[in-house]
Design goal:
This protein has 178 residues and is mainly α. Helix content is 52%, strand content 3%. It has 5 helices and 2 strands, in the order H-H-H-H-E-H-E. It has helices at residues 10-38, 53-58, 83-107, 111-138, 166-169; strands at residues 155-157, 174-176. The protein has a two-stranded antiparallel sheet. Helix 1 packs antiparallel against helix 4 (111-138) and helix 3 (83-107) packs antiparallel against helix 4 (111-138). The radius of gyration is 23 Å and the shape is elongated. The two termini are 36 Å apart.
Length: 178
């Protein structure tokens, strides 16, 4: 959502805001799933595993923490003000979310929870595709435009198999990606 504040293209701005709203809905779905799994009573005797402290402190609400227990902060939000950079960051974020949902899906036997995860995984894929389509639309702009890069700057030197005397003679074989 915060990335949308500087977007001038109304279609892409709307895309960012729509996906942001849907992601908040995903958070609600995950919270509701956790509530259904935990029950609705803060009772230490009903917590089958883990510890009761977080259940009591949060009143059975899901905590905005990462897998290591660290609180969520705005540091997790990537906002550069550069549309191409932000789109690429979003594509990567959606891909990481898909990986997490896939790991969860493989570990959970409950069919209803799996249905929820399957839905979320598919929506992350849809978001990923929407961000890729938006990136394709603007890929020659912002930081992704051609700044007059020289041919030499686009060369790649394979140092993994340079030959027996390449370092002594400087005989590396450049490969151009043009």
């Amino acid at each position: 959502m915060s990335q949308s504040f500087r977007i001038k293209d109304p279609e892409i701005k709307d895309l960012f805001l729509d996906i942001a709203a849907e992601e908040l809905g995903h958070m609600e779905m995950v919270a509701q799933t956790i509530n259904l799994l935990n029950g609705h009573d803060v009772d230490a005797t009903t917590v089958p595993c883990g510890e009761i402290q977080s259940h009591v402190i949060l009143g059975l609400n899901p905590g905005l923490i990462n897998a290591s227990g660290y609180s969520w902060t705005a540091d997790y939000v990537t906002v550069t003000g550069d549309l191409c950079a932000d789109l690429l960051s979003n594509i990567a974020s959606e891909q990481r979310a898909k990986v997490v949902y896939e790991y969860l899906y493989r570990q959970i036997d409950d069919n209803k929870v799996r249905e929820t995860i399957d839905f979320l995984l598919n929506r992350e894929e849809a978001h990923n595709q929407m961000f890729r389509d938006a990136f394709n639309k603007v890929q020659n702009s912002s930081s992704n435009r051609d700044f007059g890069t020289t041919k030499a700057a686009k060369m790649y030197f394979s140092m993994s198999d340079p030959g027996p005397n390449a370092f002594a003679t400087g005989d590396t074989k450049p490969v151009s990606f043009e």
